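Table 4 source record.
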Amino acid sequence: MFASLFAVLAPVFIVAGIGFAWARAGLEYPTTFIARIVMMVGTPALVLSTLSRTELDPGAFTSMALACLLCTLGMAIAALLVCRLSGMHWRVLTPAFMFPNTGNMGLPISLYAFGEHGLALAVAFFLTLSIVQFTVGMAISGTAASLKALLRNPIVISLAGALPIISLDVELPRWLANTGDLLGGMTIPLMLLTLGVSLASIRLQHVRSGLVLGGLRIVLGAGMGWAVGTLLGLQGLERAVLVVQSAMPVAVFNYLMAVRANREPEQVANLVMCSTVLSFAWLPAVLAWWM
């Protein structure tokens, strides 16, 4: 069991660790360029490539999308309750609870733990969460959000292209499938490197509150995933991917939105770092339950 867990988590931690060490060494890393090419080219290609070559039932895709929406709503309610108890501003804590790191960490872990089919389900969760984050999430955090910007988002465009492929079982031309595989293959390594670089640039304050609230986020997330999976009658792989994706730490993108809105970015950075560190101990326990 330990060997299996190590094989799943080691690549994620090692590649993120390389990014962390790279930034700490003061070496140049074009974060803006990498983030843009991952969002505009790599991730859409990964979505198209993964969903086109995986036999994913449209019903399973829809169930995972619905489960994601319910988990996000449940975590929003939980965040509002925690805000009343902790005294934190709801615009600071609510996005952190609602939007876990289902991209940089969730996709690689789902791939290594559950294979291509698990990755396809994780992509369905990630896509749904991204749409909510780029609309509702930006509105909550106080940054601008518009329907036009959402419709122009390459990830949303790739989803629109992938849905007919799933529902109609269309086979891509070999040249397009190979191109998607090639471009999509760069996405996960670059995501992990950028995660490590981003964590290295975050300064911690009030570590104790970050550990408490960050730990609460990942524990409640796992519980919410389990509860929603039970409610929807999800079984086996679908429920496993749902719980793992829901149990991810606070996404780095929440910190970027807090900086943009100038809404306590140090507190959000604290939640990102502490929850990510705690996930290194928590995720093996979650995966051990399902593997």
